Amino acid sequence: MTAGLEVLGRPAVSEKAILASGRGKLFRVDLKSGDYAMTNSPLTPLDEKMGLLGNLVSGARLLSVAHYSLGIANAIAHDANLDAGVSAGTAITMGAIVTAAALAVAARGLASFSLKGDAI
Prior knowledge:
alpha+beta
């Protein structure tokens, strides 16, 4: 075992790589290269909160409202620490779609809401 390598939970294994998470890091062992090179990358505070899924599945960031907010903030502030992995256009579009869908679901639920004893 490599010094300083602390893996938490079970690693994900595919034909191409082995992925595992540690305290604040994501470890990847490349199985296709033949030299089994291991790389690690630090997790951002948002990634730690969102879990490992956003790092393992690239499309998961498209479903994250937190990443939409970061994408819009990064477009305004241009800060490297606000890297959301989605463009400003995608963040605004998906944010609007999610907001509209949430409002439609809430309006539908509230339309059928009534208190017992209310006169109609």
